[in-house]
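writing this on my phone so excuse typos. first protein, seq and then structure
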Amino acid sequence: MCFSATASFIAGVSLSVFGLFTIKMSKRREEIPFAMIPLLFGIQQLIEGMLWISFQHDARILNVSMTYTFTLFSHVLWPVFIPFAIGLVEAVPWRIKALLVFRYIGGAVGIYLLYFIARFQITSEIHGHVVYIFPNFHEPLVLVLYVVATCVSAFFSSHRFINIFGILTLILFSAAYWFYTEAFFSVWCFFSAILSFLIYLHFKLMNARAAGPAYQHA
């Protein structure tokens, strides 16, 4: 988490354990990637916890490795993985086609940002929060396409809790950018991690519906 090593480790361990329970709730192979999101957020928070430790102990190698690992999660994994995972749990044909567009957008954004991770030096600093110095990410078009892939894609799901997840992550992205412009990515990733509780609720609702009348998609 963006506030301290202790908070990062508490959030990371809690989300990881919670994520394992969420994966267990999935019933089909296609549901596993979406169910993995809380676990992946947990791992990301543990990575940032290690990054805090690297600053506290002036561990240069640890700092560099954790900085790059975190940015691979935040800038490459999420825009690719989220629309992909949402598409796998969708059953309505026109929504599947729409989500395919978001997969292409997310893939393009992920490849573009991966190029800059490989090509340029990525650094992190502590300015009250963890700040990641990442070239080209704050370009307006890149930011918009990133948000489209990670947040707006959820609007096209036929599942209520996925819609809510997308709406709230978009709101928190805007709030983090407005109030924590310098460190907004670390702040937003933390609050998005907490919102992954909605994924657990999604599977709980799906399993409850499966135990009763057949689930009808919108």
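second protein below, same order as before
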Amino acid sequence: MEITAAQFELIEHCLPRQRGNVSLTNLQVLNAILYVAEHGCKWRGLPKRFGNWHTIYTRMSRWAKSGVLDRTFEQLQRAQVVQIKIEAVSLDSTSVKVHPDGTGAPKKTVRRLSASPVVDGTPRSTSSRRTRARP
């Protein structure tokens, strides 16, 4: 799905005027965007004939933020050049382990006899000396 120069003239007024030293025309960028939309490839997967993928991505990102892409695609559909229905579907199969308290599991009810570790016989620190009775 590529737009010809004659079809591009119908929507050229929707795109910003190119100024300065640009390596890619708006027609080339638009055709690259349509290629990514049609094939669902990554930006780095664009064929070399479209030019530098990063330049195309940067320009597309600017156009999307400023509303240029919306106006352009509306005009393309009114002129019946392309018929695109863009939908986004996302699936996530991430699983996260949850602590048993977070799952609603019953809490343990067994309590220690004393809250003091000294009474239970455990040392207060690992460096404390204990004397043992020798038989």
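Residues 26-39 form the longest helix (14 residues). thats all i got for now
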